[in-house]
Amino acid sequence: MGERDRYRPIETPLSPTAGPADVARGLWGIYPFDTFYIADLDAIQNPDLTGADLTGIEPLLDRSEIWLDAGFSQLRQFEAILAVKGIRPVLGSESQRDASLLRHLRSDPRLVLSLDFRGDEFIGPSSILENDADW
Prior knowledge:
Elements: H1 20-28, E1 35-39, H2 41-45, E2 65-69, H3 75-82, E3 87-92, H4 100-105, E4 112-114, E5 116-118, E6 121-123, H5 126-130
Parallel strand pairs: 1-2, 2-3, 3-4
Antiparallel strand pairs: 5-6
């Protein structure tokens, strides 16, 4: 729901830690999932960071595809992450200043678009929501 100040690290009997690789191993113990959505909340909340932290997810890339939501808002961030095999970048509307990045990348089949809402309120430039041809 976007209330990140209330988020706590995941606790599950399937995993000894909240680390992505440990959680994935626990989930694989019950089902052979081949795709995971991972949100790098530090990167989403701090657009000044240089990019996503891949340290915790690298062990997953041999066995699954990762949809990575990391506050991508610049073309150079997308180009860097697209160079990593097995990762599909998620473009979150909440991280965009305008629709230009989406328009530039919309034909890339690896792009995943996230239309972000808080309650009924769209979070991001209205032009993204209004122009479904860019989706």
